[in-house]
């Protein structure tokens, strides 16, 4: 029987612009934050996404969550999505409670369902009376608690966890891992973006390594984690000059050459 897939990326690319008007360092470039990414994540799989700083992990998470559109290729998703990310999806002007209500309303949930979710969040997030304060007054750990709890209580088919555990305290991080284990047991698909190899090894079924906007490896958890760890050790052992060279090489592969607009003669004779 053919496997059912929760998420499929077909030649997905995301392009950003880099602009600076500084006279000495004027920049006007377009580059691939993600370049020609192909994969299929089976339903019920827990996949850990690894990659060094700037490799494209957060870009992938906002595409997965439907917050950002792809520029090339297509993403096919089966099921509702929820994003969990620090500061993402929370309106700082609104209180915690209003944020829950807004998210529920945007998803078209009934008043009864929103009330249930609110009760779940109050119990899970443990942020007390801060629930009635604007989110701009929250610490980063509290924002993470609220964002994480809302998305868990929404009970999505696909859960995207983007570094949410790195800012909370240890106790809350463990509580989240336990809750995610419960979700895993019910067959939910989880995409877990993390810098922590031990967390990925301990929790995920498979791992995906993104480097320089490209998909380097996806599959066996131990193999991918070992290869990623080897790369991080190799990079850290380089001297500063070699590190810069490596970063520049990776970045240059992502730059999209400027295509000059055709002039009058080129259009007629070219
Ligand atoms: N809105 C944006 N406009 C322009 N460039 C962006 C934008 N968002 C991200 N980038 C760039 O795209 C690349 C990928 O960024 P992304 O945040 O996805 O990486 P990451 O793997 O999550 O990094 P980190 O581990 O440091 O959080 C980086 O070079 C980043 O500077």
From TrEMBL:
UniProt GO molecular function: ABC-type transporter activity; ATP binding; ATP hydrolysis activity
Lineage, highest ranks first: Bacteria, Bacillati, Bacillota, Erysipelotrichia, Erysipelotrichales
Keywords linked to the UniProt accession: ATP-binding, Nucleotide-binding, Transport
Pfam families according to UniProt: ABC_tran (PF00005)
Cited SMART domains: AAA (SM00382)
Source domain of life: Bacteria
ABC transporter domain residues: 7-237
CDD domains: ABC_KpsT_Wzt
Protein family (similarity comment): Belongs to the ABC transporter superfamily.
Protein name, per record: Teichoic acid transport system ATP-binding protein
GO cellular component: membrane
PANTHER family in the cross-refs: TEICHOIC ACIDS EXPORT ATP-BINDING PROTEIN TAGH
């Amino acid at each position: 029987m053919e496997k059912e897939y929760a998420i499929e990326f077909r030649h997905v690319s995301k392009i950003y612009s880099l602009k600076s008007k500084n006279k000495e360092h004027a920049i006007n470039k377009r580059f691939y934050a993600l370049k020609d990414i192909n994969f299929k994540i089976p339903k019920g799989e827990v996949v850990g996404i690894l990659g060094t700083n700037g490799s494209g992990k957060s870009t992938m998470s906002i595409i997965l969550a439907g917050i950002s559109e792809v520029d090339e290729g297509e993403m096919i998703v089966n099921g509702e999505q929820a994003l969990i990310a620090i500061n993402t999806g929370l309106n700082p002007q609104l209180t915690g409670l209003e944020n829950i209500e807004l998210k529920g309303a945007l998803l078209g949930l009934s008043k009864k369902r929103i009330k249930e979710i609110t009760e779940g969040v109050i119990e899970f997030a443990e942020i007390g009376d801060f629930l009635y304060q604007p989110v701009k007054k929250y610490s980063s750990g509290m924002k993470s608690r609220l964002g994480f709890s809302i998305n868990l209580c929404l009970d999505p088919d696909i859960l995207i966890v983007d570094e949410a555990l790195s800012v909370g305290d240890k106790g809350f991080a463990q509580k989240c891992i336990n809750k995610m284990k419960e979700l895993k047991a019910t067959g939910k698909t989880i995409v877990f973006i993390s810098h922590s190899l031990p967390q990925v090894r301990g929790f995920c079924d498979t791992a995906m390594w993104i480097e320089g906007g490209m998909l380097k490896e996806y599959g066996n958890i131990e193999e991918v984690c070992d290869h990623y760890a080897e790369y991080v050790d190799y990079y850290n052992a380089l001297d500063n000059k070699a590190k810069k060279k490596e970063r520049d090489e990776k970045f240059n592969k992502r730059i999209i050459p400027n295509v000059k607009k055709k002039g009058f003669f080129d259009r007629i004779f070219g």
